[in-house]
Design a protein that fits this description.
alpha+beta; 4-stranded antiparallel beta sheet; 8 strands; 18% helix
Length: 179
């Protein structure tokens, strides 16, 4: 069977999503270890998109194949039991054999938060960057609108990028101030 799951994590303690060389702790390592304990067999996962060191995720979609029979609820609850407190599976669902977390994704969403005040907040430092100087969110929003639409992002691709095309469509970009 093939299952999809949504993973949520605080990436502060991890060297990104993707498994790396021995001794480097990643979110994928922790998720695969927990699922493998539930399955009592090795489980490898594929994800919709990787994150860098220290990056958090609210809706990372993964999938895994297994011959082990478990109800979705048992996969979720069992995996969460074995995961550290900063990683959680939010849901697990069976999916069709042709589903692929990365290639079946229809869109991705990113949120960047800036703590823009004189003193950085200890409560926000885990998921906000801090900038002391005055920011003009109206000008930033206006500049961001030039990125709307389809564009060729070849200049931003890694040398070994696996994406089929550098063309991406930005459908929504908003910069605003709260408080």
């Amino acid at each position: 069977m093939k299952f999809a799951a949504q993973v949520e994590y605080i990436g502060t303690q991890y060297h990104g999503w993707q498994r790396q060389q021995a001794g480097v702790v990643t979110v994928q390592d922790k998720v695969e270890q927990a699922l493998s304990k539930v399955a009592n067999a090795p489980i490898t996962v594929k994800c919709a998109g990787r994150t860098d060191t220290g990056v958090h995720a609210l809706g990372q979609v993964i999938h895994f194949d297994t011959d082990v029979v478990r109800k979705p609820h048992n996969w979720r609850m069992g995996c969460n039991f074995f995961l550290p407190d900063d990683i959680r599976l939010i849901w697990v669902h069976p999916v069709e054999d042709d589903f692929h977390a990365r290639f079946s994704a229809l869109e991705r969403s990113y949120q960047y938060c800036i703590d823009n005040r004189a003193v950085s907040s200890v409560l926000l430092m885990q998921n906000h960057t801090w900038i002391y100087g005055k920011l003009d969110e109206v000008a930033m929003h206006a500049a961001g609108q030039y990125l709307m639409g389809k564009h060729d992002f070849t200049s931003y691709r890694a040398i070994k990028c696996q994406a089929h095309t550098p063309i991406r469509e930005i459908t929504h970009l908003s910069v605003y101030r709260e408080g």
